[in-house]
Specification:
The structure holds two protein chains of two kinds. Chain A contains no helices and eleven strands. Chain A is mostly beta strands. The radius of gyration of chain A is 13 Å and the shape is globular. The relative contact order of chain A is 0.34. Chain B is mainly beta. Helices cover 0% and strands 50% of the residues of chain B. Chain B contains no helices and eleven strands. Classes of the chains: A mainly beta, B mainly beta. At the A-B interface, strand 4, strand 5 and strand 9 of A face strand 4, strand 5 and strand 10 of B.
Chain lengths: 111, 114
Amino acid sequence: EDQVTQSPEALRLQEGESSSLNCSYTVSGLRGLFWYRQDPGKGPEFLFTLYSAGEEKEKERLKATLTKKESFLHITAPKPEDSATYLCAVISSGSARQLTFGSGTQLTVLP
Amino acid sequence: NAGVTQTPKFRVLKTGQSMTLLCAQDMNHEYMYWYRQDPGMGLRLIHYSVGEGTTAKGEVPDGYNVSRLKKQNFLLGLESAAPSQTSVYFCASRGADSYNEKLFFGSGTQLSVL
């Protein structure tokens, strides 16, 4: 059974204070790791897909990295508009193309 | 671009009542999913469909039924609602390309069962 654990559950940062969110996973044959952003009252919105250890992807102030056991979402010089819940999900060779989601990290960036 | 549309957005039911949630997508996606989201538990898969006329159980299927009579629509039914089904429900869809498996989500339905 695939498992995804995200930490911390909540994170408060000052504007400009860089930090990282963690996603630890246990799967049988990783096919992909996904990061989504979810704003209050809305559905999750796709950010990145990572397929293999060592891969990195960037979008504006966000950078996602992947190792064999975990992924990090690095936020550089965040702004208040980066406040959201960030969700991590995995899909494995044994999951019949179903994503398993973590419970998310709620990020608040204070001006 | 409408993407994935869910109706209704909010609903309050009494225990034992029934209802149907509708999900419609205009991206010609093969795969469609119903999730529920509860505080501290993340998104949990209820049922999913890999094409018109097909359905399959996810992680938490009990108390729910689904139908996919048309490719663009995926319906989630609650035959006899229970307070434990109070949650936010999300529909999602994606194409069948194995190298492009990102999900597109609707905006959610907030359901309260009293």
